[in-house]
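Worked example

This section walks through a single chain of length 135. The input is the sequence exactly as stored; nothing has been trimmed or padded.
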Amino acid sequence: MADIRRLANNRRISAMLTTMLNIPLADVDHVARPVVAIGTDYSPGTLLDFHTHRRAQFLYGMTGLMEVDTDEGTWVVPPYSAVWLPAGKRHRVRMNGVSTRSLYIEPVAAPRPCTGRVAAASSPAAGFGQHARAL
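Given that input, the structure is written out below as tokens.
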């Protein structure tokens, strides 16, 4: 019985984490969901110049190396790690052979209003990345 409950729960989670690949955020930002998941593959050396998002962003790097600049500092983000960027946080990202999975979270649903910082991916974050890779 416990296995059946676990399977049902995994299906619900899978339905919630349907990831769109290589879709610009602007194309889906209007979607009335608290969280939008987008996966993006970047060419080596891609620079996303300074910008902001109206939603908070949990930016997870599955491969390659990201260099994330904010007004507070610069972080080098290795594979299987992430950076939390609050809504409206000005940032720039250099992608070095990176495949990302991002969660864009409505400000009212965001779990924390902290400054941008690198966070080692925990089991749930690693699970998110593995799930998104399979899509």
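What to look for: The mean pLDDT is 78.
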